[in-house]
Design a protein that fits this description.
Blueprint: E1 2-6, H1 14-20, E2 28-33, H2 42-51, E3 57-62, H3 67-81, E4 89-93, H4 105-112, H5 117-123
Parallel strand pairs: 1-2, 2-3, 3-4
Length: 130
């Protein structure tokens, strides 16, 4: 199961993250609100990871979150969950201009570009992972 939200000015993400904790099959999550009034709810993200044991892709771009908080949370999540979730891919940033090199191409195509695998396989084979 995946969840994708691109919405500017969503405000405080606490209730959204709490709601997502009730989705135990959640595997991939993208929350994008570059122009937002509130920073990312860091404890809420940690709770989400504890509740959703299949979550291997988490990408959040929330404007007012500091670069330091982004880096600290990402490092903490990777240290705690990478051994039990080898495919873990965490990007937490405050702007789109951040370096997104760690993306696996399949995640980039499906979650960020919102393209289907059929389109990529038939029309853009140079981007396929196989």
């Amino acid at each position: 199961m995946l969840y994708r939200l691109e919405q500017n000015n969503i405000g405080l993400c606490t209730k959204l993250l709490l709601s997502l904790t009730h989705c135990p099959k959640l595997q991939r999550c993208l929350i994008w609100s570059e122009t937002n009034s509130e920073p990312l709810d860091l404890p809420g993200v940690q709770t989400l990871f504890k509740s959703c044991v299949h979550l291997v892709f988490f990408h959040a771009v929330i404007g007012p979150t500091t670069k330091g908080d982004c880096a600290k949370l990402r490092k903490s999540l990777e240290q705690e969950y990478k051994s039990s979730r080898p495919a873990l891919n965490v990007i937490i940033a405050n702007t789109i201009n951040e370096d997104f090199a760690p993306f696996k191409s399949i995640h980039y195509r499906q979650m960020i570009c919102d393209s289907s695998q059929v389109c990529d396989i038939l029309d853009f084979p140079q981007f396929c992972d196989y």
